[in-house]
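Repro case for the chain-ordering regression, as requested:
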Amino acid sequence: AQRVTQPEKLLSVFKGAPVELKCNYSYSGSPELFWYVQYSRQRLQLLLRHISRESIKGFTADLNKGETSFHLKKPFAQEEDSAMYYCALQEGGATNKLIFGTGTLLAVQP
Amino acid sequence: EAQVTQNPRYLITVTGKKLTVTCSQNMNHEYMSWYRQDPGLGLRQIYYSMNVEVTDKGDVPEGYKVSRKEKRNFPLILESPSPNQTSLYFCASSLGHAGGAFYGYTFGSGTRLTVV
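-- result from build under test --
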């Protein structure tokens, strides 16, 4: 069955330190993967899609099919990056179903 | 402004009293979906709709109903709410696929439901 695993519930770093939020997936086909961010008391926002190979707010994520991973990285964390981050996998076919991981809370300390 | 609008934002109700959470999008999206978010469980899909009059169950559909009579609206109906349906609910819509890639979902602000 398709699954998205985010092993860390909480990641605490200091401002300026590198950040890596882990995401592993299990999927038999070609995955489409996303990172969503949820700031305190706000809606989920799409941060980036792997197919776009873009960098948003300094974050990047590379799809590693061999390791079935899609880790989110940022070289220098900012306090405003503190939020809940969700990795999601789009299930193939017509359903457009997104399967979410359980999320990682990133806390950036001053 | 392109957005997904949910109402109400907060709702406290009693067990068994029917309620409807409304969802509307102004982006002419074909795909819409309802998720619930619970601590430690992330987001789980309740129902989704691929177009008008086309709906199907997600992972946790029990106790919920939906309808899609118009493209822009996708209400979530709880016929007889129970305390285990206390949760944060998100409606989402999507353009779907383009060029072989999925656009992803745009989410509403959420509805925090408490059933006592």
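Ordering looks correct now. Chain B touches chain A at residues 31, 33, 35, 40-45, 48, 50, 56, 58, 90, 94, 96-97, 101-102, 104-110 (CB under 8 Å).
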